[in-house]
Amino acid sequence: MNVSMNDPYASRTDRTSAIIARRDPVVYKDGTYADALASEQVASYERDGFLLLENIFSDEEVQGLLAEVKRMGTDPDIIKLEEAITEPGSDAVRSIFRVHELSQLLGRLACDPRLIHVARQLLGSEVYMHQSRANMKPGFKGKEFYWHSDFETWHIEDGMPAMRALSCSVLLTDNSACNGPLMLVPGSHQQFISCQGITPDNHYKKSLKKQEYGVPDTLSLQLLAEQGGIQAMTGKAGSVVFFDCNTMHGSNGNISPWPRANVFMVYNSMENTLEPPKYGLVPRPEHIATRKRFTPLLPLEEAATA
Amino acid sequence: MNVSMNDPYASRTDRTSAIIARRDPVVYKDGTYADALASEQVASYERDGFLLLENIFSDEEVQGLLAEVKRMGTDPDIIKLEEAITEPGSDAVRSIFRVHELSQLLGRLACDPRLIHVARQLLGSEVYMHQSRANMKPGFKGKEFYWHSDFETWHIEDGMPAMRALSCSVLLTDNSACNGPLMLVPGSHQQFISCQGITPDNHYKKSLKKQEYGVPDTLSLQLLAEQGGIQAMTGKAGSVVFFDCNTMHGSNGNISPWPRANVFMVYNSMENTLEPPKYGLVPRPEHIATRKRFTPLLPLEEAATA
């Protein structure tokens, strides 16, 4: 297990948990690669590790996107795919992966100038889609999702070399204190939490439902939360959250009657394409982590819904 | 099972779920029995079924109460009692019952003029303690508590005749969107949701950990929430929530590192003391529902912490 000793972001080795300072920039090329965000917004993202932009998509656009996600969630041809993930102990579809390829509308959304230029600006390069999915946390029985850094998983299980990717969550329902909103720990992106435990093969099949490996220790979480607090991304449908690949996040359950839906897209820099997974792990399937074709996304000239 | 056909609040019979209009007042004797609340506050409670009062207890008082609750939660002599309830799948103490008798300080809190006069005013009579408990929803692994009306349980399992009781929750930690705050459905106290399913004996042992009977159906819940919305009782430590015995409430889990602690007291009117449970059920133990001695609580002249 000592193959990784030169890896600044080693995790799940035989050593204990550790907090390691980030080695990579948060904003690349000083945020000059595109001009979607104002400099204060870039600075805010760099400091906190996330940026909430409200009222990006109109009510009409949200309705169109939500209808598409709902349609997909009940489409028998989609439900039967490996891309469709159900809630633990339930038949309700929780997530559908690779939506930017399964849906023409969501494929266009991925290239919408309001999203992709933010990604290009912050990552300082052309970008491709590492992973996309639609999430539907059902009402009444939506389960929690425990704290994690996406980068920890992407680095170990997918072989993503550096912290040069970001996630973007387009809220398709209002997110309030009541329906289990995304929670982020401001500033946590500056620390890498190396996790304990060895990863079994085909871990991804379970981890998409419930994380058991790559789980940060409570002492580190406590420290991060005491330093930065926790911010719940409450906002109206049509808002967009961008967050760095290493920002610690999670969400509580949802017993409210209201489902929580969003489209989630991970842009990775074309200069940060995947290498083999760590520790000889078998690569996760293509719909979880793009590996076969790193194709830069071509920005649309106008809104995806136009 | 037809013994209850004359009971306006029949529930858990062989009939289907139903929404039944409340027969009882919300505020008794026009709120003139005491004068702790202003008339607008009484009107607000009557309309919504709850009232959040902020900054009732000082930081110093909160620290004293919290220290007492923490002490009790680790006191071996208390942990071994039937009064102490642990989290499902964990040793962490989630609730301690009968705290107004187990702790001198909390016994005085029950008679604090800032609490008891509100109860006396709204219920229009002298009051006694139907149930008291300290709740500690631990950080990281605090479980959700699904929607329920307390009165449904108290009526069926404890034989409480009418809706003339209220709960009071003294927040001992800040409650935010992030740590699973109490959620209430405004206006829901005006409807009684009759639940499906028969209650087994000694149900209470499990129901305190996870409710399986007396669970409202999702259609009724949806209706109540569409009508009234859902309000999360977020507020600083030292705030107090008063809510009617029939107000629908619940809480999501808590993955934040911060525990959520409160002291919870149920005041029942001396004119509403318990009868035998419904359907020949065995009465729940004294620490869950006071039955042996209905002793009116004597208001203190000054703050419990004085």
TrEMBL record, chains A, B:
Gene Ontology MF annotations: 2-oxoglutarate-dependent dioxygenase activity; iron ion binding
Keyword Iron: yes
Reactions accelerated catalytically: L-ectoine + 2-oxoglutarate + O2 = 5-hydroxyectoine + succinate + CO2
UniProt entry keywords in alphabetical sequence: Dioxygenase, Iron, Metal-binding, Oxidoreductase
Cofactor: Fe(2+)
EC numbers: 1.14.11.55
Pfam family, one: PhyH
Enzyme class: oxidoreductase
UniProt keyword Hydrolase present: no
Role description: Involved in the biosynthesis of 5-hydroxyectoine, called compatible solute, which helps organisms to survive extreme osmotic stress by acting as a highly soluble organic osmolyte. Catalyzes the 2-oxoglutarate-dependent selective hydroxylation of L-ectoine to yield (4S,5S)-5-hydroxyectoine.
Family assignment from sequence similarity: Belongs to the PhyH family. EctD subfamily.
PANTHER family xrefs: ECTOINE DIOXYGENASE, PHYTANOYL-COA DIOXYGENASE DOMAIN CONTAINING 1
Binding partners and assembly: Homodimer.
NCBIfam families assigned: ectoine_ThpD
Protein name: Ectoine hydroxylase
Lineage of origin: Bacteria, Pseudomonadati, Pseudomonadota, Betaproteobacteria, Burkholderiales
